[in-house]
Structures are given as C-alpha cells and as structure tokens.
Design a protein that fits this description.
This protein is of the alpha/beta class. 42% of the residues lie in helices and 14% in strands. The chain has 8 helices and 6 strands; from the N terminus they run E-H-H-E-H-E-H-E-H-H-E-E-H-H. The structure holds 3-methylbut-3-enyl trihydrogen diphosphate (2 copies) and magnesium ion.
C-alpha cells in the first residue's frame, strides 16, 4: 500500500481540508443533497481515524462556512443535526484515541444546543495530546481577520498594545486558532479550484492539493495520495532552489 512510501519525518504538522462535493455526489446518484451530507460524515470519521494513524498532529476540517448559512433552511438544519449527532456519537472514540477537539468560527451563531454539545466535547477532550481535530464552523476567513482587528483595537484602547509592537506573530495570536502552526497542506475535494474564504491568513505558504474526488468518496487512500503529493513538493518560501537544498547542490 502506498502508505509505506510516506516519509514519516516529513509529514505536515497541520492539514486543512475543504470538504466539498457532498451535494453533487448525491445528485449524481439521484439522491437529495442531504444524503450526500450524511455520507460526508462517514468520510469525516474515516479521515480523522486515518490522520491519527498516520501521525498528523493537527487536522482542520472546513465543515460549515459563514456563507453556508444562506443555504435552504432544510439543508442548514440537517448539517447542524449531523454535527450534533457526530459529536454525540463519536466522543467516546475521540477520547479513546486521545484526540483533542477544537473549533474556529463564529460559534455564537450555532444553535444553542449544538454549541453546548461542542463546548462539552471541547472541554472533555482538552487534555488529549495525540492529535488536534479542529472544526471550522460558521467560519469565514475575512470575518476572522476582522474579528482579530476589532480585538486589537480594543486592546490598544486599553493601552495593552501599541502600533510599534505589531508584527505578524502578534497579529496571528489574535486569530481564532491563535498560536497554532499554519497549515502545511491544504486539500480541496470536489474539483473546484478556489479557497472559498477558508483560512485566508494561515494558508500564505500552504501547499495546495485539489482533487476531483467528491468528499463522500474521500478515504485514507486519497489522504495518502495528497500527502505523497505534498512530500514531492519543494517548499521554497521565496528562496531559490539552491538555497533550499543547501550548499551541496550549489553550482550543480
Ligand atoms: C460540502 O459539500 C459541504 C458543505 C459545504 C457544508 P457541498 O454541499 O458544497 O456540495 P456541492 O459542492 O454542492 O457538491
Ligand atoms: C466551502 O464549500 C465550504 C465548506 C466546505 C464547508 P462551498 O461549497 O460552500 O464553497 P463554494 O460555494 O463552492 O465556493
Ligand atoms: Mg460545494
């Protein structure tokens, strides 16, 4: 199996996934869109398990965007129900596997009972250290940046911060996921080639892997393919190839 080809010492520290294609997966089978979301939950379970087995320390799943609130009411309700049900039924496995659950986004917009369930699971799992699983919920990248700026202005007014001390590190600490490492790898399923308001600040130097596989069909094999693709990239961060490869490759 191709998993053996993975270099364990070069795994991304943080993988972020835009889980797209549930609706089209269902429509292609003559099913209603919500059937695709239900199947999408099976993919979430499989990928969380796989990421933990492979040894990915942090996985962020784009589960519901701020724009998704404007979808038909019945679809929004089903997505909220599925989230609630996932948290209820997976918490035991999450605890057994040492997974810490976190969330980023405007969580205040979630239905109160879902919010309560999420808070409980986050609290219960806070001491787990194997892997951190982050759900982006009611999440918008621009909103995240605006929320950070609001808090920065408030802190500045109180005299806790001044313009001279502002730098990238200070700014990122104000984002929802604070000091967490940026995603090294961003995966998008479902065939579209866009970012859809996801982690705008954090993906500055992420490697991007887009696949036509619809999210409900995404499993460990597809995750391994994405990781192998990632490991084949040369990350230059603005430098030249020679600089990145070190002195032995210079003049060659
Ligand atoms: C992704 O699948 C899930 C969410 C956005 C919540 P979509 O529902 O966007 O599926 P498509 O893109 O319409 O196929
Ligand atoms: C992005 O998918 C949001 C999530 C995966 C939760 P969308 O289906 O909402 O994005 P667009 O509309 O194709 O850009
Ligand atoms: Mg979509």
């Amino acid at each position: 199996m191709s998993e053996r080809r993975l270099q364990k010492d070069r795994l991304p520290r943080h993988v972020a996934i835009i889980m797209d294609g549930n609706g089209r997966w269902a429509e292609a089978r003559g099913l209603e869109r919500n059937a695709g979301h239900r199947e999408g939950v099976e993919a979430v379970k499989a990928i969380v398990r796989a990421a933990n087995e492979i040894g990915i320390p942090r996985l962020t799943l784009y589960s519901f965007s701020s724009e998704n609130w404007d979808r038909p009411k019945g679809e929004v309700q089903e997505l909220m129900r599925l989230l609630d049900h996932y948290l209820e039924t997976e918490v035991d496995e999450v605890m057994r596997n040492g997974i810490r659950i976190e969330a980023v986004g405007r969580l205040d917009r979630l239905p109160p009972l879902v919010r309560k369930r999420l808070d409980d699971v986050m609290e219960r799992s806070a001491g787990n250290r194997e892997m951190t699983l982050v759900f982006a919920l009611s999440y918008g990248g621009r909103q995240e940046i605006v929320d950070a700026v609001s808090q920065i202005l408030r802190d500045a007014e109180r005299g806790q911060l001044d313009a001279e001390n502002m730098d990238e590190k200070t700014f990122s600490a104000y984002l929802y996921d604070g000091d967490a490492p940026d995603p090294d790898l961003l995966i998008r399923t479902g065939g579209e080639l866009r970012v859809s308001n996801f982690l705008l600040w954090q993906i500055a130097y992420a490697e991007i892997h887009c696949t036509g596989t619809m999210w409900p069909d995404f499993r460990k094999d597809q995750l391994v393919d994405a990781l192998l693709d990632y490991q084949g990239r040369e990350r230059r961060f603005g430098l030249t190839s020679d600089q990145v490869r070190g002195p032995q490759s210079e003049n060659s």
